Amino acid sequence: MAEKVLMKGNEAIGEAAVLAGCRYYFGYPITPQSELPAYLSKRLPEVDGVFVQAESEVAAINMVYGAGSAGARVMTSSSSPGISLKQEGISYIAGAEIPCMLVNVVRGGPGLGNIAPAQSDYWQATRGGGHGDYRTLVLAPNSVQEMADMTVAGFEFADRFRNPVLLLSDGVLGQMMEPVTLPDPVDYDVNSKKWALGYNGKEKSERNLCSSIFLDVDELEEHNWHLYQKYQVMTDLFSTGEYKDFAVEEHLCDDAEIILVGYGIISRILKTVVEKCRKRGIKAGLVRPKVLWPYPAQVFERLAKTANQFLVVEMSCGQMVEDVKLSVNGKKPVYFFGRTGGTIPSDFEILNEVDKLVRPD
Questions:
Q1: Does residue 83 share a domain with residue 170?
Q2: Model's pTM, two decimal places?
Q3: What is the DSSP string of 80-120?
Q4: Does residue 204 lie in a domain region?
Q5: How many domains does the structure of the chain reveal?
Q6: 71 belongs to a structural domain
Q7: Structural domain containing residue 109
Q8: pLDDT tens across 268-324, in order?
């Protein structure tokens, strides 16, 4: 049995990336994710990798575009305002179908906000964030172990779908320390991607091109429908296909009358709330989306047949609640409770909200 190592969340992402075959990192420091580039600045040279602290977030994401185009496994990370600056480049990368890993350790916003944890970047993450018709696969860990495991999985997903993958963390998960079992190293071949600029198995007359420029309107429309079909395949695989168990966690939902919904650090608090509800005779359950896009709508469609109501809890003014409402499709009421600006709701506050819903008088 592999030994567990006590690691900070941000550092676990960095080590997992190295073990996944990532040899290129481009980024810029911003709290609360700076431990990740700091870790990789030391670790990547030890494995003949390249770490570059770019002059800006805009420069960093375009360096990711370049390295990814050459077939490398590459990553960048930032926190909320820095991810906003990268959006144009992420759109270019998605349009050119370049695999890469993106990490957002979310902090309070909008604007400069503060360095406290938040979940207020959900819309940005799940709706693309930049311009044009594109999507990023969004993973939402709730522990240091999952931060490591999902980083490795993210690189695999990125390569399989030729698409950016975003790991959506927050200031709590990034800074907390927990025991983690590190994944086994991946034997990654940088020359395995026949579409990449760096692929040397092509004929001399062949020319690979990684671009999102389609000046002819018919060609661009054809490309957009090609991307759309790819996103549909991704949706099917994460809803009913081979990744459906990876996409969502259900806890005590079989007989639940009220379903609590939350992702990331909130889901850990909600599990405690569910246990307290059960002790008080309230049949509560928990749905934790682990993949935020494609969203696990099929789970809510099924549970809407048996549960009486849903309570979505977020560290925002209410963003994921829209996806839950769309998934339930009006069959059962969906309520929301949130704290914002970097405030973490307590189990007592959430339990009080549950009481209001199940025992209104």
A1: yes
A2: 0.96
A3: HHHHHHTHHHHHHHHHTT--EEEEEEEBS-STT--SSB--T
A4: no
A5: 2
A6: yes
A7: 5-180
A8: 999 999 999 999 999 999 999 999 999 999 999 999 999 999 999 999 999 999 999
